[in-house]
Amino acid sequence: MTVHALDNLIKGILTRAGVDNPDGDSREILAAVLEVGPSGLFALRDTDADDDVREKAVHMAQRRASGEPIQYVIGSWSFMGRDYKVGEGVLIPRDDTEVVTREALRLIGKVEKPVIVDLCSGSGIIAITLDRELKGSTVYAVEKSEKAYAYLTKNARLNDSDIKPILSDLKDCADDFEDGSVDLLISNPPYIRSDEIAQLQREVRYEPRLALDGGVSGYDFYDMIITLWSRKLKADGVIALEIGEGQFGYISELLNSSGYTEINGYKDIQDITRAVTAVYRP
Question: What is the pTM of this model?
Answer without folding.
Answer: 0.93
